[in-house]
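pls ignore typos typing on phone
nicotinamide-adenine-dinucleotide + seq
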Amino acid sequence: MNVCIVGTGYVGLVSAACFAEMGNNIFCVDVNPKVVETLEAGKVHIYEPGLEDLVKRNTAQGRLNFTTSLEEGMADCQVIFITVGTPSLPDGRCDLKYVDAVAREIGQKMTGPKIVVDKSTVPVGTADRVRGIINEELEKRGESIPFDVVSNPEFLKEGDAVNDFMKPDRVVVGTENAESAAVLQQLYGPFARSREKLIVMGVRSAEMTKYAANCMLATKISFINEVANICERVGANVTEVRAGIGSDSRIGYSFIYPGVGYGGSCFPKDVKALIDTAKDYGYEARLIQSVDSVNNAQKHVLADKIKEYFEPQGGVKGRTLALWGIAFKANTDDIREASATEIIKDLTALGMKVRAYDPVANERAREEIGDIEGLEIIDDQNAVLEDADALAVVTDWNQFRDPDFDNIKRQLKAPIVFDGRNLYQPERMGEAGFAYFSIGRQPVK
Ligand code: NAD
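k done
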């Protein structure tokens, strides 16, 4: 099938590469000429395990093409996927300006029947909005070309995106049109081989499904973080509590790891957008509002522990913190809404110096937060430790899980570790002579 994918970020490029891998001809369109140039040169501008190989192979075999021109990209394509960003506006609402722009251009330039697929995460009602914009443009041209707008939200997670796309738990297709459903069934056939995996539903239900899924996952994270905060105060250990509740099959173990709060380009904005959609329809989403506010507070918990520790010794001013992990989670270079940024801001505002290292996000961090006064980003995991007053671990990269503790002790001024991901065992840290502070567990002093 000939498919056009508009927006070649994490979702667009992964979808494009995976569709191409199954033998489809894909035209990727991006407004950013730098992105297109990089991809045409056989390089990938984002970090996603396994993606570069797929892109290289399918580009070399002619199934993956890149352009900045939507007109060129969609000319021979029956299906057009919209995979552009849908960031939050300052008031938390979803900003649809990129989706609107693509819809408008499709309406202005389409020459034959199309199935337009919303894959970006968009509020309920957006398929109708896209349909309206395309119709408006067609009317201006005096044309009546048939088209349909389908919702096909994406559930991949950064860091394991290729795997998720290749072996999805489910594929959701929202349409009332049997022909559009059949085309998407054909396209997704190789990925969702068992028929139950492809769930066809109404457009609004599909749009709502994406928000419900992300809000459920965010709720689990905020729930366990709240439990962790209570554990600390009542003398319990959240790791033990997690084992105790996760073993209940109605609860399960996944997504109940305590930490420094969720970040990234999806959960924070999608939680806010659903609160806002509910408000638009006269409903106050109290539970989801609490998920958001628990998370906002959780992003400051580690910095608060650091401040509290140094308080009796004159505070953090003039001290140096070594910080491991800037990305919002492991296996990605994405630092959007990362908790590390909040921690860095909290501490540098009080005059602490932060020397930060991330295995892949350093470049992106330099671009996006490099101007924070007091922050230095260093490309060496060991060098950040040298003569620092303490180490804070913020992202759960594998390479931080079992470091050389003797070396850490030698490099730091004093053996103090603040662990925002509960990567280490408090007993072991105590035996090794560290002062150790983690989330939802009793400190070792
Ligand atoms: P991204 O920011 O990585 O990529 C978006 C791309 O769209 C950019 O390269 C940008 O240049 C391009 N773009 C913007 N306007 C354009 C236009 N008019 N024409 C062509 N290209 C244009 O975004 P992303 O992380 O891939 O997210 C895309 C959507 O998918 C969002 O709605 C997001 O919520 C959703 N989503 C993201 C993930 C994820 O893990 N990142 C997972 C599921 C769903």
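The domain at 299-437 is CATH 3.40.50.720 (Rossmann fold). The chain has three domains: 2-201, 211-297, 299-437. more later
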